[in-house]
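Exercise 7 asks you to align residues with tokens for two separate proteins.
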Amino acid sequence: MKQWVIKLLQQLDMSFSDSSFKVDSAPTKKMPIINEDKATLIYLMDLYNKHLFEVEKHSIRKVRDKLDHMAKQLVATEGDPAQAEKVLSEVRQFFSSYRIDECSYVQNSFDDFKRIVWDLAEQFSDEFQTDSQKDKNLNEHLQGLKEAVESNSLETLRVKSREFINKYIEHQQVKNDRRQKRISNVKKNLDTVKKQLLEANSSLNVDHLTSAFNRKCFDEQIKKYVQLNNLNTADVTLIILDIDYFKKINDTYGHDIGDFILVECVRIMKSIFYHEGEIVSRIGGEEFAVILPQHSLDDAMARADELQRRIRSEAFVQGNLKIRFTVSMGIAQLFEKESASDWVKRADTALYQSKNSGRNQYTVSKDKVKESQVA
């Protein structure tokens, strides 16, 4: 079995305790054998899992649970073509249904935004048409005044002049009043649009469960710091971490407690990484990332120590349960002219070194990614 497949299964941290996996009596579990086609499908499902957003009828937690369940089923069906086809059919049906609802949600959100902008445009249109009609009426009075001048009648000229002056003063007064009202209405509507756009943007950038930034926002920020680094080299360090044995927490206490732990983890992270520019993101199920601008490796290590001390020292109480957990971390400072993917890869590799070395610790990446590693 190829190395990338083994790493994928290790990364997913699957619990191979099902009867279909012959678990050794020793603590070390036997790695199941799967082919590359299934591994590729599981990889795509995991990638999709990391970029979910809240969709009506499909909460992120339930979709993640479903994807994890199907991934485990795919692994369990190796050597059983009939069962494999059954699971693949379930995968196809799920994605077909979910994608329809996902597209409908995006389309409805887009339609709502279009309606807001359309209403604003309609208001402007109505105002312009009203102005055009008023200007047309004033123009008719002006034309009457010109005709009075050509008529050589003093009385007609006097009457038409008075009519025009009165109409002009009235027109200007109404126009000024309408202008003030229009400015007030436009400001109110623009404030509404701005608020809704900010809410929509926030919704797209924030993880709904934990209120940390999501993977989309993290990817954007990583690219931004790489671009800034290409212009002006400055210290910026990345920490990637995940909760140790989180699957065991879910399996033992249920997903509600798992969600509680995720929220508590972010709460502590935000209480430590709260300075301007410091970004706390949830980039996977129980995986998080912290971007620390103006931080050398020593600075980042000190902050990582602080986070681990806080988490180790706290007991997280939910009802009658008192739960403790730890985290593993990988730390990488951005090198000059390094790509975003290489930077993240180094931090991610350091994280897995921490996990493979016993967890509840951090590992610092000091070497650039080698070409052979990228290939």
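Second protein for Exercise 7:
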Amino acid sequence: MKLHITAKQIAMIAIFAALFTVLRRMDAFPMVGVTGARFSLSDAIAPIYGIILGPYVGGASVIIGTFSAMALGKPVVFLGLDFLPAFVNVVAIGFLVRRKWLPVVILYCSLFAIFLFDPYTTWLINIPWGSSTISFPFFWLHIVALVVLVSPLGYKAASWIDTLQTGKLAIGVTTLAFIGTMIQHLTGNILYEAVFGQPVGIWDAAQFNTNWNIVFYTYPWERLVLLVIAVLIGIPLVRVLKKSFFRSEKPVNSETAS
């Protein structure tokens, strides 16, 4: 299997890694559950990198951009693995844009299963309901994203990206950005439990249960804000770059280019 990286791809990685570095250092809003940590603008544009650049150039740009931002003073949250959530987002969306739907479904289901069966995950949240409480799944929005992914909406979203029709383009970008931000959240949750859980970390299951009961009320709003930013930036950007130099990435593996 022959590896082939073109000068065009190297130029794109350099440009978009530099942009990612800048956005990574621009704080958006606090990250609930991790004292002092904040979401950055790079978290919002990760799925757009997948749409525009594809999995290889986009993924490389995220890795280089994340480590560059950390070298310039961006706080490290996940023991140097801070690039993983956005990286998985970009790679997943990049594959969807390339019509590689099944691997993304397998990836999403695998991450979902890892999160569900982690001993630090809280499955049900007790919500006040009148004089009593009802139990509701913490991961309800991840189920919604999985349904969207396996539905015709998730399968066809990539083809709508390839049109210049405003309605279809908007639906395609919104669908992919939603799937991307939720798979990024799953990856971040797994890292969160792996890094801060005992014996390596400082929290036990009871502390995680307390944290998840707080996060339950905030994470859908966090995802909504990131989604809105991605859509507002992504729709005009994809339209402008549709037929430009930066529109798409050819496979790194030259044997699959045909």
